[in-house]
Every structure is written in C-alpha cells, then in structure tokens.
C-alpha cells in the first residue's frame, strides 16, 4: 500500500450486476473528486455462489437459475431483470440477461488476483464484467479466459499461471475470508481507508460524499463506520439482489 494515498478496497463478484453498476457510479464520483490522484483502489474477490460447479455440464438460463435459487417464478425474475437492465442503462451499461451464461466465478477471480500483481486489477474487473453481462461469454471456458486475458493485458502464460498455481486461488480465498471477518454478506462493498464502509451500488453523490468524508479523515484514527443509504442495491450470498 502506498502510504501517501488513501486506500479504497472493493469486494465484488463478476456475477453480481450491482457490482458492475456500482463500479460505474464509483468511477463517476472519483472523476469529480478533487484528490483522486491521492486514491488507491484495490479490488477484492467475493463469491455470491461458490456452489456452482466449475465445469457446468447442463446449462440453465440466468432466469432459471435465479428462479430456482430464490424460489421465484420466471415472470417475476424477468421483471427484475428488466429493472436491473434499466438501472444499468442509466449508468451507461448494456446488460443482456438472455445471453448470460451461468458459471462459477472462481477462475475469473484467480485471473483478477494475478492481474492485480501487475497493476491491472481494474482492467480485469472491467473485462470480466463486460464479458459476462454484455457479451454472454462463457467464463468457465479456459479458451475464452485466454482471450479475455489478452484484453486485460495478460499473456497466455500469465493466464495459465493464474489458473494453475495455488497461490492465486489462495489470494481469492483470503479475500473472501477477510470479507467474512468484516461481516460482509452482500456486494459491492466499499471500504474507505479502513474507517468507513459503503454498501451497494449507491448513487454517484453518495460515493462522492464518502470520498470527501473519508479523505478529510485521512491519517486520523477513527472507528469503522457504515455509511448507509436507503437507495442502495446489492446482491447477497443468499441469492437476494435488490
């Protein structure tokens, strides 16, 4: 960590629509922040559903998966998807739930962990979010992951190392365990300077307020506080996204 910069940690899963939307809202706030050059961002791994098989043999639609997991009917799920798609559109994103493929996100997290060591963590998150939510890419397929690795700025050897070496799985698991220790049960989850937390895909102004407040308190000791807002949206580990 650069001691001259305020660190912001973001727990996220590339399977979470509000994590992508939250990324856009946070980026818009950071662009307006006067001290953005004094901010260091670190993306942290999180898995909403680690029980999804890494090798999916029977494909289900995302609507079927959500309906089965949450006990909803398909029509209600599709209405929910329409609402999330509209929210994404307002953030400048193009979601296509009909083409999204169900996959365990751990392989992507392995690559994100490798990319972080090369200073490419943000690029990795962006590539995987777009691949899943917009382009309908199969994130369980290693050939696809190799192609996506090139978009991140990684070589084929880099991607293979990330997928094969235990250390990158350990880094992802460590992030997930750390989230549990902090009581994180939904994402996105933003931690500012280990003093303030922001939950969910907050509006831009809320992120900007959090940046200003945490920066004003930079280098001071204070308790860990959660900055709440009634209009946050997030996905939790029980399959609830709202």
Please describe what this structure looks like.
The chain has helices at residues 17-32, 62-70, 74-90, 106-117, 121-133, 142-152, 156-164, 166-182, 204-216, and strands spanning 6-12, 39-45, 186-187, 189-192, 196-199, 225-227, 235-236. The chain is globular. A 5-stranded mixed beta sheet has the order 2-1-4-5-6, sandwiched between helices. It is of the alpha/beta class. The model has no long low-confidence stretch (mean pLDDT 92). The protein is 48% helix and 12% strand. It has 9 helices and 7 strands, in the order βαβαααααααβββαββ. The relative contact order is 0.19. It has one domain: Glutaredoxin. The longest helix has 17 residues, at 74-90. Strand 1, helix 1 and strand 2 (39-45) form a beta-alpha-beta unit.
| Architecture (CATH level 2) name | 3-Layer(aba) Sandwich
The number of distinct β-strands equals 7
Write out the strand line-up for the largest beta sheet, numbering strands in chain order.
Answer: 2-1-4-5-6
Termini distance? Answer: 33 Å
- Give the topology string: H per helix, E per strand: EHEHHHHHHHEEEHEE
GO molecular function: isomerase activity; oxidoreductase activity
Keywords: Isomerase
Protein name: Protein disulfide-isomerase
Organism: Soonwooa buanensis
List keywords for this structure.
242 residues, alpha/beta, Glutaredoxin, five-stranded mixed β-sheet, two-stranded antiparallel sheet, 9 helices, 7 strands
Brief sketch in words of this structure:
With 242 residues, the protein is an alpha/beta fold.
């Amino acid at each position: 960590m650069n001691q001259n910069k305020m660190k912001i940690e973001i727990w996220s899963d590339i399977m979470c629509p509000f994590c992508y939307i939250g990324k856009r809202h946070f980026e818009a706030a950071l662009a307006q922040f006067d001290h953005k050059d004094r901010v260091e961002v670190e993306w942290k791994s999180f898995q909403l559903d680690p029980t999804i098989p890494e090798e999916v043999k029977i494909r289900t639609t995302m609507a079927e998966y959500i309906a089965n997991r949450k006990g909803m009917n398909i029509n209600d799920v599709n209405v929910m998807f329409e609402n999330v798609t509209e929210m994404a559109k307002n953030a400048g994103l193009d979601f296509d739930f009909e083409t999204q493929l169900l996959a365990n996100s751990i392989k992507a997290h392995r690559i994100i962990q490798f990319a972080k060591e090369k200073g490419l963590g943000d690029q990795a998150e962006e590539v995987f979010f777009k691949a899943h939510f917009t382009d309908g890419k199969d994130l369980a397929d290693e050939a696809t992951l190799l192609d996506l690795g090139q978009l991140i700025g990684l070589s084929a050897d880099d991607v293979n190392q990330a997928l094969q070496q235990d250390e990158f799985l350990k880094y992802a698991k460590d992030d997930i365990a750390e989230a549990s220790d902090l009581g994180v049960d939904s994402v996105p989850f933003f931690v500012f300077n280990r003093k303030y937390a922001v939950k969910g895909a907050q509006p831009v102004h809320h992120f900007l307020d959090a940046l200003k407040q945490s920066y004003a308190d930079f280098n001071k000791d204070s308790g860990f506080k959660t900055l709440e807002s009634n209009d946050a949206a997030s996905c939790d580990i029980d399959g609830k996204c709202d």
